[in-house]
Amino acid sequence: MSIRLSRRTLIGSLGTGAGGLLLAGCDKINASPTVQTLLGVGEKATFAAQRVVADRAALAPEYAASQMSPFFRTNGVSMPSTNAYAAHLASNFADWRLAVDGLVANPLALSLDQIRAAPRRTQITRHDCVEGWSAIGQWTGLPLGMLLKQAGLKSSARYIVFHCADESRGVPYYESIDLIDAFHPQTILAWAMNGQPLAVGHGAPLRLRVERQLGYKQAKYVMRIEAVASLAGIGGGKGGYWEDVVGYQWYAGI
Amino acid sequence: MTQDEDATPPAAPADADGARGGDIVARHRLVTRLWHGTNAFSVFVMLMSGLMIFNAHPHLYWGQYGANFDHSWLDILPGRVRVGPWTIPTPGVLGVQAGGRIVAFPPLVTIPSHYDLASARQWHFAFAWLLVVPGLLFGAWGFAARHFQRDLAPSAAELKPAHLLHDIGRHVRLRFPTGAAARRYNILQKLAYLTVLFVLLPGVALTGLTMSPAMDAAWPWLLHLFGGRPSARSIHFLCAFGLALFILVHLVMVVLAGPINEIRSMITGRYRLPKEKGE
């Protein structure tokens, strides 16, 4: 009896010890810069393969009104905390202006009324969170490509950066996309959702919809759109808030 | 080749080329061994990083949409798992406290061990290449070299209920084929390998692609095939569960059938045919 107990204890402690070593080993491997570089090759291969397989104008699936989520949950910041945003909200965005600048021939400052009066696209699409959930909603907004043509994108521009009003850990949210997605027909600056003006929780007054990528690319509370040649000077240099903070992949097509 | 005779003849039967129990024979071809090697590596990384990704949202849904306020069919909650109407207590196993948060799958089985969705995705999508590319090459070779047709396709006789029951009975009693009969896959092996090759592996790969918003734009038929992204995510999880179950049974069978001989045959290709009892 005593032998059996001690054997069991031994096996148990061996198991725990081996498990601990295994965990420490795995995490050490994960932290190694070489391993991160190797895994980065996989990420680049995925991006390249998806760009090859998906035509640059291939449309994200659009859904019927009957297929929409009964309740579309909010995610991330649901109320920006700055005084400037509070003032905009109080005045119903009367003095709010969308700045379009950077590598453009004609920098723009557009009011919400001007944006709403511009040509619009309405689409019922699926929002896929990086965490795994999906919600289907209807979005109406100004095609980003039209805005960029209006601003006269310079030939040196390679990326479009979105600067936002919401802050996390004291840093304003930012995201970026390449020109293939920027000029994609379904990439819009949405000012309405499910037939209503965009709610604060979903990014009022204006949010990005870039339908072939995950949720964290769908920047809410967009204040300024900047055309740049490189992402090196933006935030931590990885092209987006979550990319810089926790290391999410810049290309979020998967 | 002679027709598959009854698995337990009284005397050691000679194979077409005269192999009997105790002989060393060539069993697995190089391509099979190479593919087994890459899989042994990639499948574990895929399963473990997949469990970490699952931890980010431990709920599964059917249909075109599925988020927190929608009806899920599976939830891993603190200390319990709900599957449809059933709740199974899992204290200390699933839904455990780790690193200041509740995680569905515990640190011991996830990559990385601590909650890190970004890294898990990086591992998962890099090793997906190591799973899919060799898998496609092996699949093409398997048909071209007639490995699937010759060694895996069950004969009509093998699929007869009597034969299946006989084989199940022998497995339950842990009596494995010996002598020349051990050169061929038995019907349960064939069915298990065919399920892995043509159901579970294509299943995980295609449902994995369906979860990619860019791939849904490129190949909209994926969504039609699986009935929506949340459905694809559920099927992805079920196929992965099936693969994990297969690996578990596979490893148990290797141990029971003689681990040294079995592992050697998968590394060098050389296999010693088990001797018949009383030989």
Automatic annotation (TrEMBL), chain A:
UniProt domain Oxidoreductase molybdopterin-binding: residue ranges: 92-228
PROSITE patterns recorded: PROKAR_LIPOPROTEIN, TAT
Descriptive protein name: Molybdopterin-dependent oxidoreductase
UniProtKB/TrEMBL annotation, chain B:
Membrane-protein topology: Multi-pass membrane protein
SUPFAM superfamilies in the record: Transmembrane di-heme cytochromes
Official protein name in the record: Cytochrome b/b6 domain-containing protein
Compartment(s) where it occurs, according to its Swiss-Prot or TrEMBL record: Cell membrane
Renumbered residue ranges of the record's region Disordered: 1-20
Alphabetical list of Gene3D superfamilies matching this protein: Transmembrane di-heme cytochromes, Chain C
Cytochrome b561 bacterial/Ni-hydrogenase domain segment(s): 27-269
PANTHER family: CYTOCHROME YDHU-RELATED (PTHR30485:SF1), NI/FE-HYDROGENASE 1 B-TYPE CYTOCHROME SUBUNIT (PTHR30485)
Pfam family, one: Ni_hydr_CYTB
Organism expressing this protein natively: Sphingomonas abietis
Location, primary (coarse class): membrane
